[in-house]
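[audit] Reproducing an earlier prediction to check determinism. Same input, same settings, fresh worker. If the tokens differ from the archived copy the diff job will pick it up downstream; this log only records the rerun itself.
[audit] input (76 residues):
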Amino acid sequence: MALHYHCRHCGVNVGSIDNISVSSEQLGFDHLTNDERQEMITYQQNGDIHIKTICEDCQDALNRNPDLHQYESFIQ
């Protein structure tokens, strides 16, 4: 199993962790609501997990322009 983190706004690959065996509690997924889990986490048939996160560049853009928080994705 591998974890793949991608920015939900720009799609950049933030990072991956290969050959990991951890529980969802160890990853902190248990702190998310069901809606947040469905929105942020995708399980692949091969066991990989894709997680939507926010990269540093997009977080900086959000900090400078708080009105962007209203959009699901602000980079087209």
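[audit] rerun output stored. Observation attached for the diff report: The helical segments are 24-27, 34-40, 56-64.
[audit] end
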